[in-house]
Amino acid sequence: MVIVPLLAIAFDAQGIDTNHILHLAVGTAMASIVFTSLSSMRAHASRNSVRWDIVLRMTPGILLGSIVGTYLAKYLPTRVLAIYFAGFVFLMAINMLVDLKPKGSKLVLEFKGLSAAGFIISGLSALIAMGGAVLTVPLMLYMEVSMVQAIGTAAAIGFPIAVGGTAGYFAAGSGVTQLPPLSFGYVYLPALGGIAVASIFMAPFGAHLAHKLPAKLLRKIFAVLLCALAMKMLVSLW
């Protein structure tokens, strides 16, 4: 939710065709999630905080949802995709500010239910380059999975979402001639490399701040940042 508007603003400043700016930003951001989710998944798995039974049941729907989401994104005009993205960001920001938390209900989902949930979460995530945690964690909590396992499972689920979404944006952008050099479909390699390198250096600093700042203050800062970036992106693309 942070990377997409920043990339869109940067691509607009570079004079990239407006019709493809947001698709390129979403595809590149989705590719970056492959690396971050893999690292996060390994870290949580080493602490036995991943419910692999849930991951395996959701994965078929996740892969199919990624294909459908990226296929749909290909045919959405930039402004429509921007409005959808901004609307989702504003919704998440409001949720952070009011701190809504789902109540458990001992919901039990078997293979079909979890696969369907994976399809919906992955399809929505692929449209805006999201790892899916903002939707997966509430679902896990609703099923009365512990918070630690909910976060770990969401991290593991983020990997197939990212892989499927990246493959989809690569295929969707293949053959598009107005993209900048070093683009593989809707994945722009220089930006992907920059994000990966910056993440390595800045992640420890961010983790340090997260432990120092009060949780409520951190949520408010992040919510305001998201709204500001989304508004700036909308203005740039309009």
Characterize the structure shown:
- The protein is mostly helical.
- It has one domain.
- It is built from 9 helices and 2 strands.
- A two-stranded antiparallel ribbon has the order 1-2.
- The protein is globular.
Strand content: under 5%
Q: Ranges with pLDDT <50 over ≥5 residues?
A: none
Major β-sheet profile: 2 strands, antiparallel
Number of DSSP-assigned strands: 2
How many domain units?
A: 1
**Roughly how many Å is the radius of gyration?**
17 Å
Strand order, main sheet: write it out: 1-2
- Tally of helical segments: 9
Distance between the termini: 19 Å
Order of helices and strands: HHHHHHHEEHH
What gross morphology would you assign?
globular
Mean pLDDT: 82
Derived structural class? mainly alpha
State the helicity in percent bands. Answer: over 70%
Which helices and strands appear, and what pairs or packs with what?
Blueprint: H1 3-13, H2 18-46, H3 52-75, H4 78-98, H5 111-128, H6 133-142, H7 147-173, E1 183-184, E2 187-188, H8 189-212, H9 215-237
Helix pairs in contact: 1-2, 1-9, 2-7, 2-8, 3-5, 3-7, 4-9, 6-7
